[in-house]
Amino acid sequence: YFILGVPYDATPEEIRGAYFDLDRKYHPDVKKDANAQRKFIEIQEAYEVLSNPQRRAAYDAKLPEEIKRGPEISVNFKFSRMVIPRIAEQQLYYVLCDLICTADFDFKDLPPFHLCLVLDRSTSMHGARMDMVKSSALQLLRQFRPQDLISVVAFSDRAEVIIPPTRVSEMPKDDGRISMLQTGGGTEIFQGLQLGIEQLRSIDPRYMRQLVLLTDGHTYGDDEACILLADEAAAEGIAISGLGIGHEWNDVLLDRISTASGSSSMFVSGPKDLTRFFEQKLSVLSNTYARGLTLEFESSPGVELRYAFRLHPETTPLPVSNAIPLGTIMFRKSMTFLFEFLIHPQTAEVDKLTIMKGSIRMEIPAKKSARTRLVIDVSRPVSDQVDRETPPPTLVEAMAKLTLYRLQERIRKEVSDGQIDKATKHLHYLATHLLSQGDRELAHTVLMEAEHIQQSRRFSKEGDKRIKYGTRALLLPSGLEQKL
């Protein structure tokens, strides 16, 4: 099951599909190195067992019970309406989903992790920015476990391996290879991303593999190549987090690179932000119960997913697709997601709608057969007669915060389209709501940006990112995590 990358309860069709995908990838006509040939033989042997019902049954009978058990994760749903009204118009429908890991921490079988830092060392990183990155990287090394691996790649218009994959126990506490990094050249993210992923691919895939990309600028013409590479890495279980330093970097690209694996991008305005990120990432890697969570589902005709957002941890919008990367869940921790559906008018014959039916696939590193899944089946009745009801407070709160975040998305588009009057009006509306919630600092930034847009007809680079990531941070209200 591990070799083919399928769960214990995989159907014959799923086993066949996984086999053909791997066969194409590792066939000797495609890859000729010795490791690929060994992998190809393993794939053939695994498929011969699992594709034969008698051999599979005999194999399953020998497996330990822990492999046959499902994930120790409970799932709870809250709905904007318990009953969907049958009306002649389209309507929005919201679902708040909580995933709660009930497993106790057990590190004895947890594999080590491999963290690869991919650092922008272009000319614009000279001075305080590079000093901040060096200091934070060296501080991070001191917090790793001895068995963990670290690698470092630096890039400008070319990429270079500064530290190849090395056990922390074999590294000096103050590694001069990081301290001696020099800046110079342009910014070509693909070069660094590709070399960083190569370092992670060179190690046993049972390791938990994380790439952290730090940059302060726009890349030159390789955006699509970066996105394709991030998608490939995500399919292999490699997570990527993007950190933008200063105000010149491409937040749209870093969002897309990061969300491919269910991670998120982050705006780094100073050393404290970088330190906090590394502490959080180290905590996640050291306490991972399941990784690569991916929601795959279908809905009834006339039910359309329009928006998906992870509220906790690491608030971020998620790609809307038939396979949504959700991220990583830690031992005894929770994850919260908000989904917006558009429901089209329903005929009188329809008395129930399937909102989500499918599964959440995941990999549990501590399990010998790591692949597993959590089945979900969410449906709601449809009726002509619907009583007035109040949605759960946590859902109302999340919807209100999401509205503010999406408003800034709308404002950015209006500015891009030259609709300055509309954008200015909506910025004042956003500031009013922020003030009513007591967020004076962000409201002040919004009002200052409204003045700037009226004069220059574009966002300032600093204001643009402060508003985007400021409203995103609102999606984890102080009380929400305590209520979950």
TrEMBL record:
Matches recorded under CDD domains: DnaJ
Start and end residues of each J domain: 1-63
Residue ranges annotated for the VWFA domain, each copy included: 114-285
Stored InterPro entries: DjlA_DnaK_co-chaperone, DnaJ_domain, DnaJ_domain_CS, J_dom_sf, VWF_A, vWFA_dom_sf
Family matches, as Pfam families: DnaJ (PF00226), VWA (PF00092)
Domain of life: Bacteria
Name of the featured protein: VWA domain-containing protein
